[in-house]
Amino acid sequence: MSPLPVARAEIVVDLAAIRHNVRTLRELTGVPMMTVVKADGYGHGMVEVARAAREAGSEWVGVATIDEALALREAGDTGRLLCWLTVPGEDHAAAIAAGIDVTAYSLAELHEIEDAAGVVGRPARLQLKVDTGLSRGGAPMSTWSDVVAAAAAGERDGTWTVTGIWSHLAASDEPDHPANDAQEAVFRDALDVAEAAGLRPEVRHLANSAGAILRPSARFDLVRVGLASYGLDPAPGHTPDLGLRPAMTVRATLAQTKPLAAGASVSYGHTWTAETDTTVGLVPVGYADGVPRHASNVAQVLVDGKRRAIRGRVCMDQFVVDLDGDLPAPGHDVVLFGPGRDGEPTAQDWAEASGTISYEIVTRVGGRMTRRYVDK
Predict the structure, then answer these.
(1) I want to staple 84 with a disulfide (CB 3.0 to 4.6 A). Which of 103, 209, 219, 292 is the partner?
(2) Measured between alpha carbons, how far apart are the two ends of the chain, in Å?
(3) Exposure pattern of 246-255 as b/e (b: 16+ CB <10 Å)?
(4) pLDDT digits (tens, 9 = 90+) for 127-138
């Protein structure tokens, strides 16, 4: 029998961790949950994560685009599913036909959804998003009354059912930021406007991961949890220890090791020079695989039970680590980041080394890496 091929580099996702995190967060918040699986499940695999979240009791799944929502339906997901980011001319008809809740920010979007519902011959499931201060997507309060009035008229004539009203927090990872109180107040005003127009949505939702954990008053009828579902901290320095488990481990196979003499320099631009004799190892992943170039000379990996620093610039396909005189054989495991239980760096460690956030670390990693699922 031929041996199993060795993975040059892979992303290992623990689905049991996803289920544990979803259950933990549902118990904490005490309201229904929407597990957000946009961007291919934050790099963990959209279909697989959605399935695990449903198994753990998540009543809703959320994605950004209609394409993502339709892919979930094609993969067999039949539960409540919301999408929220479109451009003029997108195929709302396919989303309506698939029973997907769609979001409108404007009168123009409502007109497109109305036309699509007519083509499909069934009412749309519609949610309205109000901009409460993030100044990104959503209807500004200056147009909110018009959007609500049109939505109420469409509900009366059977074009759609308004299933939700929602918004998004700008600074929930900073619990004391004044924007949190201000946005919640605007959201409550927006809900009053909708109620006065006769709308009685099934769910009102404002809180993302940090808001769901840190701001009970923002939980309303539903919380949208993305990052925390994957076991990562949405508000470093503020989040209590909930026992969440990071679900992603990124590993590679050590390609080469060799001695390096004092005075020798490493990688493009010779940005690092050995002060003493040492040894180095070649890790066969780079920025084409989502390894941040900003991690050059800063981030660490785990090799042979020890943390090893990246030396020199991260290249397109590879980077070099300092083995501090050790010479583990090529073929040894290299853990870029993982849960941290065995001494390996975490996604948060990489985020801090790269001057970014853990969201970016896990969503950008991939490239030529394979993905493997475990259930621990």
Answers:
(1) 103
(2) 27
(3) bbbbbbbbbb
(4) 999 999 999 999
Average pLDDT over residues 160-182: 98
Measured between alpha carbons, how far is 242 from 296 in angstroms, rounded to an integer?
32
Residue at token pair 């699922």: 373
Per-residue pLDDT, 2? 41
Write down the residue that tokens 């959007």 correspond to: 147
The catalytic residue positions are 38, 268
Strands (E), 121-242: 124-129, 160-166, 203-205, 223-225
pTM over cut 0.85: yes
Asked if 116 and 92 touch (Cβ cutoff 8 Å), the reply is yes
Has 122 been labeled as part of a binding site? no
Domains observed in the chain: 31-230 (3.20.20.10), 248-374 (2.40.37.10)
Cβ atoms of 159 and 148 closer than 8 Å: no
224 assigned ligand-binding residue: no
